[in-house]
Amino acid sequence: xxxxxxxxxxxxxxxxxxxxxxxxxxxxxxxxxxxxxxxxxxxxxxxxxxxxxxxxxxxxxxxxxxxxxxxxxxxxxxxxxxxxxxxxxxxxxxxxxxxxxxxxxxxxxxxxxxxxxxxxxxxxxxxxxxxxxxxxxxxxxxxxxxxxxxxxxxxxxxxxxxxxxxxxxxxxxxxxxxxxxxxxxxxxxxxxxxxxxxxxxxxxxxxxxxxxxxxxxxxxxxxxxxxxxxxxxxxxxxxxxxxxxxxxxxxxxxxxxxxxxxxxxxxxxxxxxxxxxxxxxxxxxxxxxxxxxxxxxxxxxxxxxxxxxxxxxxxxxxxxxxxxxxxxxxxxxxxxxxxxxxxxxxxxxxxxxxxxxxxxxxxxxxxxxxxxxxxxxxxxxxxxxxxxxxxxxxxxxxxxxxxxxxxxxxxxxxxxxxxxxxxxxxxxxxxxxxxxxxxxxxxxxxxxxxxxxxxxxxxxxxxxxxxxxxxxxxxxxxxxxxxxxxxxxxxxxxxxxxxxxxxxxxxxxxxxxxxxxxxxxxxxxxxxxxxxxxxxxxxxxxxxxxxxxxxxxxxxxxxxxxxxxx
Length: 566
Prior knowledge:
Blueprint: H1 2-13, H2 30-33, E1 36-39, E2 42-45, H3 46-58, H4 68-77, E3 87-88, H5 92-97, E4 106-107, H6 109-113, H7 116-131, H8 137-156, H9 187-206, H10 209-226, H11 234-246, H12 248-268, H13 273-301, H14 309-331, H15 335-353, H16 370-403, H17 408-444, H18 452-473, H19 478-503, H20 517-561
Antiparallel strand pairs: 1-2, 3-4
């Protein structure tokens, strides 16, 4: 029966012949967008499902600028899309391994499947995955490619379109049926669902917007009537659609960048309070909108938005602005909000360009405690915000040391600002690390186990404490504190990113991933070059000052020893 349903779906979905012109008409996808789909352990709008699926295959939420549901319908409407260049492969060593053109970015599904090297390597990687062995980077990228091909095949077969709620009377939490397998329903209901789905695709193919609107609404109504009790509240679906379309984090960094430019201008036009307060207004506005985006994501997911790498980067960006605004309102010296808006902008841009998964997924078992997510993970993550702001301030310090090392008053002021932020970061990181141990005792039965994430969190804490202690005792001064703040952020980067994307081992396995290594190496190389240049320049300056003082002292000594005139 299952095979018959899949066959029927395939026949119905391929009635629309070829790729040519469908999707060119101006369709209204509102009805289809809001159809709930059960996928990835949660219920989401069809718009989200389509966007995530299309991005998994092509690397773009809006492939060729099309709405996600439009692309999904194109895939369902013609088998010819298996010969179109839609599968993104960016990792050059993988393309070399499979004998593909390394200058080409996208490849056809059929082209990849027919590749004998792909078949052989896929078999090898699948076998290694089943054995539980650790994958290297190349094998992980191959696993991603296998997922891309599988996603496309399951989409066009209807197997992934799990938008049919279970029949009334089913057990709570029962799995939803896919359009490719309607065996849970009687034949009459199956035919009605498949025929309505066929009407949607046929209208889409022929560019009949009126018929498309009618059939889309009919599809939405029919599915909702099958089991109204299993359907999520309408507001839940609409909230996620609004989140998808408003793109709050994109808008936030644009607002932050505007704030940075205005504050930067305020430095040059020191008497213009209008520029300063305009920049502050944009920073506050961006902060509030950024926070609203985090709130939306938390409401959609039902948990604090700090459960994966993407979410923590976005949250750290918000925390940077939080601390920048707090310290700026205390000191009102422009430095905090200027640095904070710049670093916050960078964080949100990195969240988009680095290979982090932005999908909203259910929590893994170890994290299924909103209580501990709030008091441990949020505390740790917000400490990263303080250290990121300190890292930005340290760069300003070193720029001044490079260009104006004789401006002692400015350097003392900047060093005080940096010191205050470091103190906040250390307190938060210490609290978060201790709370993590308490959570570990509750979850795993031991307070501390030298897990890589635990170990590097402790190393980061000790590193920053060493910087503060050395400054307090006079072992290092303001210049050394600035350098130590940047080096300390390297430890945070290892704890935050390296354990998950480089070591990829340990009990904190919920955040592992691959990719982005070149960005990190590039950043580290740039930092070492920058610090090396500043240290060289500042050492030369100190040597010149010392030589000048020695010469003056020698002149004074000679003058004092000369015989007075008789």
